[in-house]
Specification:
The complex is a heterodimer. Chain A is about 55% helix and about 20% strand. Chain A is built from 4 helices and 5 strands; from the N terminus they run βαβαβαββα. In chain A, strand 4 and strand 5 form a beta hairpin. The mean pLDDT of chain A is about 85. Classes of the chains: A alpha+beta, B alpha+beta.
Chain lengths: ~110, ~290
């Protein structure tokens, strides 16, 4: 665990993290996405990996990602997810929203 | 269009639940194996690696349930179960099913019959020119609303100023003899203004004039298009010939167009000879 305690993935930010991961890494399977998010966060982010799959389904239903069966690096059948055009637009919107949110919260905190 | 796509994947999920479950199971299985292999690479024993993989995944059943809920409509699945149950019960009690189906069939049949008449008679505009100007006229006396008699009609026709055309009509029937054909026909006795009040004129010949209402002149008759086609072989020279109706000779003066709609249906129209001395209140009023 290290000196810093692990943070849970904040409610509502999982969508943004998944979209961003697929944007920078290209098509990935569910485990790859989970690994990647944990790695990029230097293992500071603790993700209940089970919650990833309902999120992937939700993003698919919104048309932001697409799913296709493929073959993994170790030659196993796996479902690969890829960002759609609409997903790319959504990523920009969500990223902007997030940055705005962070700056607002920071401003409120600094005020004190 | 997002909701449409969602509806698509969700309703597909409803019918392919087992397939969706199998796909998800395969996906989760793959995930756990990958995690386990990763843990082994980090130096864990086989048992430790499996337990750690499970732990980091969290609640597998919970994830599966969440996924299933997202995939279909939980309420619709319950409905589908109820429907299946209902069908099974119906198959098990064929007598009850037959009675129930028959009852519903009768109910639906009678209702649609009533509705089609209501629709034609009450709901749809009358199939005549400027249907909103056509009025039915009744006579109110005390609590009773009813038809009027000849004296009332004559009075209204001469002095009433609300209608351009005011006509009276009376349902009747009789035996029509035309050459070898003898048949019972539904007739309507009408005053001279009847057809012009409806805004229609005969396809062949002429309609009634005030002259035809007079006592003593030869009787005249207008034929419906159906009768003309079926009994007179669509012969245009029928105009001017005579037929026998209720034992009286009648001269055929006109044939109505095929499109003319009469409710209730009538076969022939004859002049209504307004008998001032008659006190019977049998006349229906019609105005435009």
């Amino acid at each position: 665990m290290g000196s810093k305690s692990k943070q849970d993935v904040m409610q509502g930010t999982l969508d943004l993290l998944v979209l961003k991961t697929l944007d920078s890494m290209g098509p990935m399977h569910g485990w790859g996405i989970a690994r990647r998010i944990e790695q990029v966060s230097d293992d500071l982010l603790y993700m209940n990996q089970g919650t990833l799959y309902p999120a992937l389904l939700r993003l698919r239903q919104k048309g932001w990602i697409a799913a296709k069966w493929g073959v993994s690096d170790n030659n196993r059948r796996a479902k690969f997810y890829a960002l759609t055009k609409r997903g790319q637009k959504q990523l920009q919107v969500e990223a902007a929203n997030w940055r705005q949110m962070v700056s607002i919260v920071a401003r409120v905190l600094d005020e004190a | 269009m997002t909701w449409l796509r969602m509806l698509g994947t969700r309703s597909a999920g409803l019918f392919r639940r087992s397939r969706g479950d199998a796909e998800l199971d395969e996906e989760l299985q793959f995930h756990l194996e990958m995690e386990e292999a990763e843990n082994r690479r980090k130096g864990m024993s086989a048992g430790e690696a499996r337990i750690a993989a499970r732990r980091s995944f969290g609640n597998v059943t919970g994830a599966r349930e969440l996924h299933r809920e997202g995939r279909g409509f939980a309420a619709l699945e319950t409905l589908a179960q109820d429907v299946r149950y209902g069908l099974r019960m119906m198959a098990r009690n064929p007598d009850f099913t037959a009675v129930a189906v028959l009852t519903m069939a009768l109910g639906i049949g009678i209702n649609s019959a009533i509705f089609s008449v209501t629709d034609a008679v009450l709901l749809r505009p009358l199939p005549y020119p400027e249907p909103d100007r056509i009025v039915e006229i009744g006579f109110e006396s005390g609590p009773n609303v009813g038809n009027f008699n000849a004296r009332m009609f004559e009075y209204l026709r001469e002095r009433g100023r609300s209608c351009d055309q005011l006509a009276a009509a009376m349902y009747n029937s009789g035996i029509l003899v035309a050459g070898k054909h003898v048949e019972h026909v539904r007739t309507l006795e009408v005053t001279a203004e009847y057809f012009s009040a409806l805004g229609v004129s005969p396809a062949l010949g002429r309609d009634f004039s005030r002259q035809d209402e007079n006592q003593g002149v030869p009787w005249s008759v207008v034929l419906s298009n159906d009768l003309w086609r079926n009994r007179f072989a669509s012969d245009p020279s029928v105009i001017g010939t005579t037929v026998q109706l209720r034992g009286q000779l009648h001269t055929v003066i006109g044939v109505m167009p095929r499109t003319f709609w009469s409710y209730p249906p009538r076969d022939v129209w004859t002049p209504l000879r307004v008998n001032i001395l008659s006190g019977g209140r049998n006349y229906r009023g019609l105005g435009r």
